[in-house]
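Can't paste images in this forum, so I'm doing it all in text. The chain is below; anyone willing to post the predicted structure tokens underneath?
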Amino acid sequence: MRESTSHRTRALGIGVACALALVTPASRAAEPAASPGPLGPVRLSGLVQADWTVLRESSEDEVTPDGEPLNEDRFLVRRARLRATAEHGLVHGALEMEANTVLQPEVRPVNAEASLKWPAERPAYDPTLDQRHVKSPVWLMVTAGLIPTPFGFEAGEGAIRRPYLEATTMTQAFFPGLFDLGARIMGGFSFVSYALGIMNGEPIGQRLFAARDPNKNKDLVFRVGGAGEVAPGVRIDLGMSGLTGRGFRRGRPATTDQIAWRDLDEDGVVDPIELQPLPGSPAEPSASYKRFAIGGDLRVFVQVPVLGELAIRGEVVRASNLDRGLFVADPIAAGYDVRELGWYIGATQEITRWAQAGVRHDRYQPDEDAREREPFAVVPRDLSMSTWSLFAAGRVPHGRLVAQLDLRRNALGRDASGAPTTLADDSFTVRFEARF
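Text version of the structure:
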């Protein structure tokens, strides 16, 4: 009986082995065991953020003169990112690719960096991770490539850590796309941290020269901050930032004299009175201009019993000629330096580990000296944009379901008489987010 059972077990084992051999490709079976690369094991991570814009008041079933749709009530992949990082001793490398359908299907790099760090055993700084609890008395990291601009807090927060759907209007104007090409030195001692960067000054979301540099001048950027626990369960993180550099204004080629015909009586016959001379203009060379910014940021973290962490954040930036994403600053055409001011304040509260809610108010003034001509006078014009954002999120270990209401107020609209009025542009968005 025992011999019969032994034969059956052996036969079953042979059958299972034959079945696995049949369903396993020969090339797969012949592959060697995975081995680490030159920088050691590669860590993969990523996220997918799929949005449903349920309502956007400014949305229209129409297209622009160049054929771009004006409808915003739609589904879209806001961002899908795959990030690979590896390090070996003093060397660290990272590459992050993004796909989105914001304007059209697009795949692009958003972060590509090569770094040297010290000490070797300290984890490299990674904007996708929460590193508030990493302890190291002294550390230093030198990085070059496509990196976040080291200014303030929100510009380097990272989409995977941001509780709100998107960055504030101020940050989208000053640092469109958030990432720029350059080099950075960052480090810390005890509770003090610092970052100094030299950047092209043309972020990847910039309108005119995205990820390129039309002039030889570079932007110098810095942030100095401190963080620490000031009381049991209360932590403060504050910093001061600055930026100085030069922007670029593209010139215009020369034009020749021309004659324009306007068929005033619509008879299809050219009459001398309908001809209008258009004089040519000389070429206008390209030019550069100064830009700068100074800002401060503050975050307070409080551990609330039972519920979880309460996080309060705020940031203010005073700038000149820095807008590169919304109202692109052009002081040469304006005839004066364009003064800009932006700020925000917000709070988020964890509701156990399964939910989170928050509110944020941001305001951005792209030109504090803007003027508008009325029938008998030139009067100041308010171009400020402000937004109240309220969100609630349900959370699981590797994902979120977020609903956010944005109440926008700005004077970009016009009433029937042509006077400025508040543009109806509120929106309600639902986001499905998965992280891995």
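The chain has one domain: 40-250+289-435. The longest strand covers residues 287-304.
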